[in-house]
Amino acid sequence: MKKLQCALIGIGGIGKWHGQMMQDTGQMQVCAVCDVNEEMREVAKQEFPDATFYTSAEEMLKKEKLDLAGVITPHDLHAPMAIAALNAGANVIVEKPFATKYEDCLAVLEVARKNDRFATVFHNRRLDGWFLATKTVIDDGLLGNVFEMNIAINFRPGPNTWRGWKEKSGGILFDWGAHLVDYALHLAGSEVEAVSGFLYRSPHLDPALNEDHGSVRIHFASGAVANVVVSGTDRVQPHRYHLLGDKGTLVDEWQWPDTDKMKVYTRLSGGEQAEMEVPYRKTVTQLYYDNIVDHFRESTPLMVSGESAARVIDVLCTAERSSLQGGIPLPLTR
């Protein structure tokens, strides 16, 4: 069976990782690599010696007949590059976040439909061992009815990288924040009713840079809320997860790779209080690309639908609109 012909648009950063996972499926071949930085030609030659190197995505998409293109570029280029690849006949995988504007997500999905192709997003952290273990704790009822989720990270790239600039990255919420919101949406298992947001920027900060601190409060139809925080100013390391239910509490700390377990405080059937350590499940990121192959070969549903990835961006953009209006809860766009 002929291997699926794949291209990488952007090989700096984690582009090489995407390409390696493609080829590790045994059924994908990286036949083309594009990067605007000519210096990446040697990197591409070393990592993917059989691939043709381009500095123009337009030229590559004209010359190559592709089954799949991976878009691993600065965030503001995700949507235009995905649309170009879809119009050239390729299916696309977009690095997270899907885009920096919700309407851009919708535009990509519409072009995919018109061309009978798929667009998915690399929300690889749905495969994180800590996320899978947390979902099991909730599904097994150890927390009872979960009514509040606190999910946070301290993360703020500096001006030495495009990730630190608002126009290119989307803002402080659009990097790790996309992962954290995706966690919340899947752990809640409920529709979103409203979103409020708060963004703080120091008056001394270059306004072109990302904000110093951002928080999102998601109100679910179940009555639960999720507080998602990405901070560049918090001097104390937050918990990855601090989940509250009417029967128990789950706490997980950012101590990777020094820990592989979380703590759950719950009540047994006899009313006794119990504290336990729950080990993380195994993280196997390769399963994301294995699923892509299965979708091509056997029409297996995609692990990450474009619509679910767009919902993350809808939440983030709604939080930004809320922040501009004093933090009032707002409904999603859709």
Task: Give a written overview of the molecule.
The longest helix has 19 residues, at about 305-325. The protein has about 325 residues and is of the alpha/beta class. The mean pLDDT is about 95. It folds into two domains: about 5-120 and about 285-305, Rossmann fold; about 125-285, Dihydrodipicolinate Reductase, domain 2, CATH 3.30.360. The chain starts with a strand and ends in a 10-residue tail after the last helix. It contains ten helices and 14 strands. α2 links the parallel β2 and β3. It has helices at about 15-25, 40-45, 55-65, 80-85, 100-115, 130-140, 165-170, 175-190, 285-300, 305-325; strands at about 5-10, 30-35, 50-55, 70, 90-95, 120, 145-155, 190-200, 215-220, 225-230, 240-245, 250-255, 260-265, 275-280.
Care to give the gist of this entry?
This protein is of the alpha/beta class and 334 residues long. The chain folds into two domains: 4-122 and 285-303, 3-Layer(aba) Sandwich (Rossmann fold), CATH 3.40.50; 126-283, Dihydrodipicolinate Reductase, domain 2. The chain has helices at 15-24, 40-47, 57-63, 78-87, 102-114, 129-139, 166-169, 176-188, 286-298, 306-324; strands spanning 4-9, 28-34, 52-54, 68-71, 91-95, 119-122, 146-154, 192-200, 213-220, 225-231, 239-245, 248-253, 261-267, 273-279.
